[in-house]
Amino acid sequence: TNLPSAKVELAPGIEGNGTKADQVAYRCTLPAEVPVGIYAFRLATAKGVSNARLLMIDDLPAVADNGNNKTQATAQAISFPAAVDGAAEAESYDFYKLTLPSGQKISVEVVARRLGSALDPAIRLLDAAGRELAYSDDEPGIGADSRFVYQVAGAGDYFLEVRDIRYQGSPNHRYHLRIGNFPLVNTPFPLAGQKGTSPKLTAAGPSSEELPPLNVAVPADVASGRLPMAVKFAQGQGSAALSLIASGGPEQV
């Protein structure tokens, strides 16, 4: 992987693991301080190296799509905050139910195209009567993926609807749905920091106004030239991922 601190080993408890020609399972253990973000991994053998595949490292508790949540009446109940890993089916929807207190502010984000998924997501927030409260399709800064922030007025049950904007679906139409109270941000500003310095940075994006200035030290040696960063609200749930270019020369605004 592009995580030098990761511990990678053959997953135990699987009969014949590591001896089959067509499949293998690994366990990847990460330190707690690894920033939230999208990372790549490859499988290398004596016969060559695989293409890179993408996955997201998250600090939200993860659950899986149960596959039986195709209507609002059968919505899958999930705790707040959470991250859901699922895949969209053709001409269908996935529904998730949240029970929220009055005044709860929630951030919702679908990470799909950024992971190489075929899904072009659209998401809606509905009240118990099925009325639309928030909607997102394509969003500036994240391309075809979706996200929004909404503060609920009253306590009760709320529903998230996830689908492909073209009603397409397959096992390759996968998504990582993030639900919490985290900032929606696009980039740090300035976009780059000189190696070996501690630049003054802020975050730029739709809900970055509540974030204080970012305190980050850019190491003298940064793998791939980009420094992954995670930012969160002081009392928030979940982090947002940023990437800072690590430059070899002085940076000026």
Question: Short summary of the structure?
Answer:
The chain is mostly beta strands. It has no helices and 22 strands.
Could you outline the blueprint of secondary structure elements for this entry?
Elements: E1 7-10, E2 26-29, E3 37-41, E4 44-45, E5 48-49, E6 53-57, E7 62-64, E8 76-77, E9 82-87, E10 94-100, E11 105-111, E12 121-126, E13 132-136, E14 146-151, E15 156-164, E16 174-180, E17 187-189, E18 192-194, E19 200-204, E20 214-215, E21 226-231, E22 240-247
Parallel strand pairs: 7-9, 8-10, 18-22
Antiparallel strand pairs: 1-2, 3-6, 4-5, 9-16, 10-15, 11-14, 11-16, 12-13, 12-15, 17-19, 19-20, 21-22
- The averaged pLDDT comes out at 93
Proportion in helices: under 10%
What proportion strand? Answer: 35-45%
Stretches where pLDDT is under 50 for at least 5 consecutive residues are none
